[in-house]
Structure formats: C-alpha cells, structure tokens
C-alpha cells in the first residue's frame, strides 16, 4: 500500500543575531511518497498496463457470458467489455474447462470478443519494448486457422500489433509499415495449456517464448508503438480498432476463413510497456506456471522464482526430476494462493491439496497461512508400472519417483490423490533409493492424507506383492513333479528341478484348463473341499471351501 507523509509549514517567527525578523510562511504542503508496494504478476508492477485473470475480476456463474472482465493492473480507465462486439465469451469454473482448478474464459473462435474502447496503450522508444504474457489452452482447429488473436490493437498488419495463439502455431506482428514484422513459430503446437510470452525489443528483435523457451525470433527496426504507428479507434472499424481480447482489432476480414478469432480457453493476459529483464520474466513465468500447473521448459535448467527473488524450484539440484513440475504456494505480492494443484500435462497423475477435497475450485480449499510458502514437486518421467521389489516390505514400488522442494514452514503436510488405483502405500525417503527403512503410509479411503513432505524428500507409491513368499529355511533341493510341454533342451528352458517345488506347470505354447461348469453350486453332487472349477455363468474361478463355492480372490501382503 502507499504511505503518504504531509509536512505543513505555517507562520513562524525566527530570530537572527538578536535582531527580530518576522517571516511569514504561508501554508505549504510537501508530499513525500515514503513507500510503495503494489500487487503485480511475479511482483513486477512497473509499466504494468493490463492484467486480466479469470479467477479474479469476473462477476458471473459457470456457463454465463462475460460482458465485463475487470482489469487488475490498477492503471486502466476501462475494463475489457462487450462494447460493440458480435458476441461475448463464456465464463468457465468447472471440470475440464478449468486450468489447474482455476477459472477460465472460453472463446468460440468465430466472433467472441472483448475490448477496452477508447482506453489505449502506446509504448514509446524510451520504454525499449513491450511484453505480453498469456495463459491459454487452444482448441484443436484446422491448420488453416493461422491468426487466432488473443490480443490485438489497431490495423493488422500495417499500423498495429498483435499476438495470436493456435493449436498448430503461434503468430505475432508489429506495425509492418514502420519497421516491424510478422513471424510464426515453427513449433507444431499443442492443445495443452501453456505460458506464452510475446517479447518485443525495439530496434533489435522480437520473440515468441513458450514455457520460457524461445520458439521463434525475428529482427525489427521498429523504434516505438506510438499513435502514429497504430491506427487506434474506440470501436471496431474496417482498418482500425481498440485494444481487443480474443479477436482481431479491426473489423475487416475478421471472419476470413474463421481465422482471426481465438478458439479455446484463456486464463490470464498480462501486458507491460517495458523491456523486462531475464529475472523479471522468470518471476512472471514462475507465477503463471505454478498457478496453472504448467511446467517451464527444462531443456536447459529453468529455476522457479518467488517474488522476492528466492529460488523455489532449483532446477540444477533437481537433476532428472524435472518432469511435471507443479505444486501449491502463497505469494501475496503476486496474488498467488494456489491451494490445490495437478500438472496439466497428460501424464500428470497426482493431485496435491491442502485439504481432503480433490475437485473443488482453487479458492474453496484450506488456506496456506503464511506468505512466501511453497511446496513444489516433479517426477523422473518414468512409467507408472510397479516393477521394483522392496526387500522386507513385500512391496513393489512404482518406477516413477517424485522429488520435493519446499520454501517456508507453513505447509507441514499435504493430501495426495493418485490416478493410478493400484497403489496401496505412499513411500517416503530421504534419497531416491527405497528400502525397508523408509516410511510406508497406507492409503486412506481413496487418497493419501496428511503426508509430511519435507524439502528434498523423495516419494513414490507401493503395490502389495500378490503371491505367497517362498519357503524359508534350508531349501529341499530338486523337487521335480512336473507337467510340461517343454523338451529337455536348454534352449527350451526345460524345468529340471525347482527348490521347494511341489508341482510345476510349465509351457510356452499351452494353457492350463480346469473343469468348466455352468452352475457348479448345483451340478456337482458331492463337491470335495479344495475342488476348483471355472464357473461359465459368472466367468470366475471358484473353490469349494467345504461349505459353499466361493470366488477365488487376489490375496495381497
């Protein structure tokens, strides 16, 4: 908040060298701004011009059209409204229409749009450039839809600038008639959510950066984007228009091949009229990545930063644990309070929550009590099979392992929900090697509750071994009662003897078939305890236990 000190000077008598001199000082007020702090993306507030976020600033229910999207930058006169638009986008707060449990605004890709009317943003040479950040999940569309604008201002493409995001590529342009240029990513694109950054550096170059990785770059001689280089208008005209969200600014050729309107979900749009430093950019990307469950590219190690500059995910020490980075955290200087999270990647399989609810919107969960507290996790990218035996535990653990990095002490435990239903335990370790000295916590109902995850801890999931352990003590060697279709050659791996073996069935080409009965409960007149049959009605194996026929169930230890 701002603190204002007012110093007031009034009439006062001052004596110099015994000579009385009266000096009249008329009321004078001196204003000093002694402190200034404002919430901004990544804590960066200087030259912030637009900040639209779907989770804050829309007064609508799920499925209701958005006619007013309140700007949170603190500097706009107007909000993004429906003024003069053909139709409005729709507010989404549930299911797959959310991005990491946060609300979105859905655009139809045809004629949805919002605009800022006569509230313009110009960027002068002294500001050196501009940056637009967008969190978007584009729908899969035709490759012919080449310019689905999420942001546009002025006359495309001679006197204006804009940024388009599609499922096949992204596109940007700046006032081509004044030394700007248009360019496309060579990246094939995706329908998963991503953090997009359109970075314009006057007189040198501009870049399209996706999840903190440069995907396209081109040189420009453009020195500024003032009113002479943008054809602005308070409404959509054939060759001019206002700052527009989700569509082309000008009205001319808007519906050309249904091309120039965004199709998909928008979570956040941020605009700066300045050349951001690498640290400022990383802070903003970190904020957006954590909030929306998006992994910043780790081709080269990319740290995540809190607003105070502290590293909250150290990519160097994480090593190979750099897949599906996500987590929860609170950082008041960027209005981040993520209380439930799951990686948006298709192979993200765990949800972390501050309480036992794993479905409600982010704001509905138990609060993190202290500012600047984070808990992030990432995995090694291996498959989710249970292939690793833990001696002494009678468990196999999952090949995929997660690593924890934590900042602050307010998050003492979390609740985890695993998509894979085969796990019986969560296993916690101080290193990446799991053995019988590590902590084993059983599943509660359908989740793992109150799990104490600490900094640099590793965890994975265990599955009970579903067969009897072998006999203990001195083996009785060479038992060889065998029914086999193998021959006696080594190439066929013929079983000659097995320690403690009683009856061995071995074949690579034959199956074992037992008696098949359509109703074993009545057809067998005198069943014997221990008798096995296959019930063709119920399609299960059944055993007679001396009293009744029971289904043979898997037994785990």
TrEMBL record:
Residues 281-446 form the DUF8202 domain. Pfam families: DUF8202 (PF26628). InterPro entries: DUF8202 (IPR058515). This is DUF8202 domain-containing protein. It comes from Flavobacterium jejuense.
């Amino acid at each position: 908040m701002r603190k204002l000190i007012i110093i007031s000077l009034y009439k006062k008598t001052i004596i110099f060298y015994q000579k009385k001199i009266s000096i009249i000082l008329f009321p004078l007020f001196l204003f000093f701004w002694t402190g200034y702090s404002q919430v901004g993306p990544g804590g960066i507030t200087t030259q912030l011009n637009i900040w639209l976020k779907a989770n804050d600033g829309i007064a609508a229910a799920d499925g209701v059209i958005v006619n007013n999207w309140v700007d949170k930058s603190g500097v706009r006169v107007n909000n993004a409204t429906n003024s003069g638009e053909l139709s409005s986008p729709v507010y989404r707060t549930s299911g797959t229409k959310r991005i990491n449990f946060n609300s979105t605004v859905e655009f139809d890709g045809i004629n949805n749009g919002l605009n800022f009317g006569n509230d313009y943003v110009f960027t002068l040479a002294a500001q050196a450039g501009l940056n637009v950040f967008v969190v978007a999940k584009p729908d899969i569309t035709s490759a012919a839809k080449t310019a689905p604008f999420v942001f546009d201002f002025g006359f495309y493409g001679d006197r204006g600038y804009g940024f388009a995001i599609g499922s096949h590529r992204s596109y940007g342009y700046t006032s081509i008639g004044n030394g700007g240029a248009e360019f496309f990513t060579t990246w094939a694109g995706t329908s998963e959510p991503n953090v997009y950054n359109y970075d314009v550096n006057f007189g040198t170059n501009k870049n399209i950066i996706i999840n903190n990785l440069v995907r396209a770059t081109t040189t420009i001689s453009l020195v500024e984007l003032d009113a002479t280089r943008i054809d602005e208008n308070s409404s959509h005209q054939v060759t001019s228009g206002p700052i527009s969200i989700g569509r082309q600014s000008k009205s001319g050729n808007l519906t050309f091949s249904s091309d120039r309107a965004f199709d998909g979900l928008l979570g956040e749009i941020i605009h700066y009229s300045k050349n951001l430093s690498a640290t400022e950019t990383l802070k903003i990307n970190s904020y957006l990545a954590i909030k929306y469950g998006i992994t910043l590219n780790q081709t080269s190690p990319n740290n995540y930063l809190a607003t105070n500059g502290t590293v909250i995910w150290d990519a160097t020490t994480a090593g190979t644990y750099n897949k599906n980075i996500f987590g929860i955290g609170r950082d008041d200087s960027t209005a981040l309070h993520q209380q439930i999270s799951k990686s948006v990647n298709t192979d993200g399989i765990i949800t972390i929550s501050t309480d036992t609810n794993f479905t409600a919107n982010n704001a509905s969960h138990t609060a993190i009590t202290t500012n600047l507290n984070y808990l992030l996790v990432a995995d090694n990218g291996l498959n989710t099979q249970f292939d690793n035996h833990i001696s002494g535990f009678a468990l196999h653990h999952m090949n995929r392992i997660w690593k924890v990095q934590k900042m602050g002490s307010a998050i003492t435990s979390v609740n985890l929900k695993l998509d894979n239903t085969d796990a019986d335990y969560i296993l916690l370790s101080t290193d990446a090697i799991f053995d019988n000295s590590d902590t084993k916590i059983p599943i509660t109902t359908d989740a793992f509750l109150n799990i104490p995850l600490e900094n640099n801890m590793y965890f994975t999931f265990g599955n009970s071994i579903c067969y009897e352990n072998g006999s203990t003590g001195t083996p009785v060697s060479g038992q060889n009662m065998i029914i086999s279709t193998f021959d006696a050659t080594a190439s066929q791996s013929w079983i000659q003897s097995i320690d403690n073996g009683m009856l061995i069935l071995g074949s690579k080409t034959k199956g074992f078939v037992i008696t098949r009965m359509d109703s074993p409960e009545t057809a067998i007149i005198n069943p014997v305890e221990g008798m096995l049959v296959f019930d063709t009605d119920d399609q299960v194996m059944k055993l007679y236990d001396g009293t009744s026929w029971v289904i043979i169930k898997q037994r785990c230890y």
